[in-house]
Amino acid sequence: MPDAAAIQRLVAEAEAEAVSDNAAVRVVAGPGGQIKDLDLRHNAFKMSGVELGEMIVETIKAANSAVDRELSEAIGRETGMTLPSDVFGGGMPTREELEEER
Questions:
Q1: Is residue 65 part of a domain?
Q2: Host domain of residue 37
Q3: I want to staple 85 with a disulfide (CB 3.0 to 4.6 A). Which of 11, 34, 49, 69 is the partner?
Q4: Pairwise CA distance, residues 19 & 43, whole Å
Q5: Domain assignment present for 55
Q6: Residue 41 sits in a domain of what CATH number?
Q7: Kind of pairing, strands 35-40 and 16-19?
Q8: What's the total number of domains in the chain?
Q9: In what order do the strands lie in the sheet with 25-29?
């Protein structure tokens, strides 16, 4: 039988980092789309607002995907179950998803 306390601890401690290709943006995300840290390097301020905004969103999505994947794997090991990497959802909707809602 899975240890509920161990699973709670895994969720509470879960986090993953993503860095943009040009290293201008670094994001640390927790489960459920939580953003724990967002760092902008000096080169981020040389970008246009639109470019920076898109880069931030893409980096947040990457961090969210990573934490969901890592948490799914960790809980799967704890429970002996195979969980899909997106089982926890969360995160920000894609631009396409937002436009479809309109």
A1: yes
A2: 4-86
A3: 69
A4: 13
A5: yes
A6: 3.30.1310.10
A7: unpaired
A8: 1
A9: 16-19, 25-29, 35-40
